[in-house]
Amino acid sequence: MEHYEPPADGGAGAHDASAYDLCDHCGQVVLGEELLGALVPDSSAVHASDPALDGRRVITACSAEHLAALVDEYRGRPFVPEEQWAAKVCRALADYEEPVPLAVVAALSGLSEHQAQQGVDWHNARAREWRAQYGDPDAPGEYGDPDGPGAGPGD
Ligand SMILES: [Zn+2]
């Protein structure tokens, strides 16, 4: 393709961002060197490039108290495998604009076809819930689900 995009610089302030972070509990800006961090299980999290780090989220806090509160909060959250598979599928498909066969989806996301299908189903169920709540047919797309809604409200 003739369309070439130079590597994104992130714009102004992108470099300073690494020096500061926010406390995930109270939102306070904390200097990077004073920041406390922990790795917690989170089925909605996938690492941008390293699948070995999938399913874990780095949380940051301003103090030991807030870190403990956050760890507690995540500990109370159920780890949903389907959510994790859905996140892996979404990451794998981020570079694709055309529909991708399930076998390819599975290979790309490092899952079995069964897991990939479960992930797709989970994603589609969320998309359906979203539409049910907000009623927008153009809302988050489903990955080719044959059981359409049929006769919807209004014509
Ligand atoms: Zn805090």
TrEMBL record:
It comes from the Bacteria. Residues 134-146 have a biased composition (Low complexity). Residues 121-155 are annotated as: Disordered. This is Helix-turn-helix DNA binding domain protein. It comes from Kitasatospora misakiensis. The lineage of its organism: Bacteria, Bacillati, Actinomycetota, Actinomycetes, Kitasatosporales.
